[in-house]
C-alpha cells in the first residue's frame, strides 16, 4: 500500500469525526412494540491523525455508534460528520475504511477476489488493484492462502482479510470494530503495529475494543461508553493522572536473614522460591536505597516496576460510578 | 454502471461456485432419457411431447433457481452481515439491489441459453433418428425457430419471479419469501379468471376486489405461449411485444418497491 508522507495526512481544521446529540432507539417487542435506547445523545469529537479508543462493556452502544457512522442504521435524532461532511454523503465513503465486528465475507471468493471486488467498487484500474491487493495482503500477513476460498479461513485469518478490505482505498479515517477479536497474541501484535503504522501515515484510527491494554498502548484519546451514554472522553493524559502508587521489586540470590533485616523498608515481602523474593514498596519509599542494601547482601535485581493506575482501573472506576448513579436515578 | 456490473458479476460467480449450473446436467439427462423412452412408446406424438417437456423443464428448473437464489440475494447478505463491509464502500443501496437482480438474471440467461442449445440438439437428434426434419404427422418442424419465442417468454416470467422474490427478501424471512413467491407464481397463472369474476358472482365489492387483484397480481398466463408454439399455432409479434412490455413494467415496479424498502432499512 503506498504510504503517504506527513503527519497528520493533511492539515484538517475540523474534527475527523464529530457527533452531536446522536441517539438511536430500536423497537423491541412484536405485540407491544416499545423503544429501546441503544445510544443516548452522544457528543464526540475525534481529531484528525489520532488513534481514538472507543471503550465500553458489552451493550454499551459502541457497535451502534459505528453503524450510525457507516449509515448501516439511521439515527433517531442527532447528527454525525466524518471529515466535515454528513455521514450520508456518499463521497465520504471514498475516504474511509470499516472493519465490522467478527467480519464475514463471501466464502466462495478467495482473499484476492474479495479485495478485487471491493477495489473495483472504488474504481481502481486492474493494474492498481493488483498492486494494492498484493501489498495489502502482505501487510496483514496473508501469504499463499490468498488464493484459497474464504470458507477455509480461520477466524483470525478472516479478521486479517477484514482489515485488508478496510484499507483497500488507502483511507484517511479507519473504523475498526473490535480489531483484536479472534486474533492470537502474534496477530494482535501485528494489528497493533499496523495501527501504529496507519497513525504514522497520518490516518485517523477509530477503534472499539474490550482489550484495555491495547487501547492504553495505542490511543492518544479515548471515550468510555456504558448503557448507551458517554461517561467520559478526551486525551488519556488529561482525563486521568496515572500517578505512581508504589513499586514492585523482584530480587534473586538473597538469604532469608538479609530479607528479614530489610523487611521494614518494604510494604510487603513475598517469597517466590529459594532465594527469590517479590517486595512491594510504598510510593514515597526509596527503591534505590532498598536495592542498594539488597545488592550489598548478595542479591541481584530481576525487575523493578512502578505500580500505577491502568486504563483498566480507570475504566472500572468509571463504570462503577455509572452504575451507582443509575441505581440512585432508579431509586 | 460499473458498480452494477461488478455486483452482478459477483452474484453470477457465487451461483457458478455454488454449483447452481449443475442443474443443466439434470436437464440434459432428463431430456435425453425421456426422448429415448418416448421413442419406444409413442407413435407420432413423441416430438410434441419432447417439445412440451423441454419447455416445461426449462420453466421449472429456472423457477427453482429464481426463487431459491432470489430469496437469498439480499437476506443472505444481511443475515451473514457481509452487507456491513459492502455498504461502507461508495455504493448506493439501490445499486446493491439492482446489481443483485441483474446478477441473477445473468445466471438465468446463461442457464436458459445452455438449456436451449441442449434442447435443440435433442430435437435435432430425434428428427435425425426418425428420418426427417418435418414429418407430415407433426404440427411443426422439429427444429422450430418459433420455440425461441416461448423461451424468451419463459425468461421474462423468470425475471418477474426473481423480482418478486427479491422484493420479499428485502423485508421478510427466506422461508416466508419462498412461500409467498411460489404462491404468487401459482396465482399468477390463474390471474385471467379474476378479470371475468363478474360472470360467477353478483357482489359488486367482490367484483371490484377481483378486478383490483387482477391488475395488482402478476399475470404469468399472458407470458405462457408454450402450447401455441408446440402446436405450431401463430404467435403474433405485436402481442408478444405488448406482453413483454407488461412484464418489464411489472418488474420495474417491483424493483422500485424493493429499493424503497431497502433504502429505509436498519441493519441491526
How many structural domains in the coordinates of chain A?
2
- The total beta strand count of chain A reads 14
Q: Kindly provide the radius of gyration of chain A, computed on alpha-carbon positions and rounded to a whole number of angstroms.
A: 25 Å
Number of helices of chain A: 10
Cα separation of the termini of chain A: 56 Å
Major β-sheet annotation of chain B:
none
Compute the average pLDDT of chain B. 85
The arrangement of helices and strands of chain B along the chain is HHHHHHHHHHHH
Strand content of chain B: under 5%
**What's the tally of helices of chain B?**
12
Shape of chain A: globular
What shape does the CA trace of chain B take? globular
With strands numbered from the N-terminus, the spatial order across the biggest sheet of chain A is 6-7-8-3-9-10
Low-confidence runs of chain A (pLDDT<50, min 5 residues)? 1-8
Please estimate the helix content of chain B.
over 70%
Largest β-sheet summary of chain A: 6 strands, mixed
Structural write-up:
The complex is a heterodimer of chains A (331) and B (268). In chain A, strands 6-7-8-3-9-10 form a 6-stranded mixed beta sheet, sandwiched between helices. In chain A, strands 2-1-4-5 form a 4-stranded antiparallel beta sheet, covered by helices on one side. The model of chain A is unreliable at 1-8 (pLDDT under 50). In chain A, helix 2 (111-121) crosses helix 3. Chain A has 2 domains: 17-239, Rossmann fold; 244-308, 2-Layer Sandwich (Alpha-Beta Plaits), CATH 3.30.70. Chain A has 10 helices and 14 strands. Chain A is globular and about 75 Å long. Chain A has helices spanning 62-69, 111-121, 126-139, 155-166, 185-201, 212-218, 236-239, 256-262, 287-296, 311-330; strands spanning 17-28, 34-46, 51-55, 77-82, 85-86, 96-99, 173-177, 204-209, 221-226, 229-235, 244-252, 268-273, 276-282, 300-308. Chain A is an alpha/beta fold. Chain B is built from 12 helices and no strands. The two termini of chain B are 29 Å apart. In chain B, helix 6 (93-130) packs antiparallel against helix 7. The relative contact order of chain B is 0.14. Chain B has 268 residues and is an all-alpha fold. Chain B has one domain (2-264). Classes of the chains: A alpha/beta (331), B mainly alpha (268). At the A-B interface, strand 6, helix 2 and helix 4 of A face helix 1 and helix 5 of B.
